[in-house]
């Protein structure tokens, strides 16, 4: 199976469903001027005013445009032409100047042809990539001297637990082979009429950190977070800042964030 073309078809099919969903609420995003970034991301990245930021695997660009609303000069890249078409449309509707490019993430350095102060990749991105070494090398090639990668992701520890309670180990943390999924619904709740197959790849936290370090980037921090963006397990409760286990229950890592800098010279 060609994982890239399979996943591209799957994501092209998701785009119209996602754009029209209440989950993304593109109409309100356009009209209200709001940001969809998580507060911890904004705090950990810091002031982006006047800085050039590339968002890899940007989907249709709401995170990308949120960084622009904070003052960054943004470029978004995604392998789905349907997503990039929508990103350009939404940017125009918001009156935001942004560049969006269609390309596979592994071709980003050549496709973008420039370097950046910040390379950002958002939540749920790495599972679509089979080779993190190549990904990290691509990130390093995109960074200016002294620039940095910022990654926010779902924690791989949560993927070993049972879906219902999140208390029993039922999956292999070290499983790395491609996983083929046949799913009729997207995470927004919409039903896919076609192209329901996707291919995903699990990556442990050590694999991510090692790939980033091997690419010559200096890891500044890895922060683990005890909350996530959706009810990953039925036992999670919404406390207003995300979904986490109730007070009194032992906490587990549900998300993590990483920042790593390129050499200054």
Automatic annotation (TrEMBL):
GO MF, one example: methyltransferase activity
Q: Does the keyword Protease apply?
A: no
List residues of the Methyltransferase type domain.
56-149
BP GO annotations: methylation
The record's CDD domains line, in alphabetical order, gives: AdoMet_MTases
Assigned keywords, A-Z = Methyltransferase, Transferase
Pfam families found in the cross-reference section? Methyltransf_12
Q: What protein is this chain from?
A: Methyltransferase family protein
Organism, as annotated:
Nonomuraea polychroma
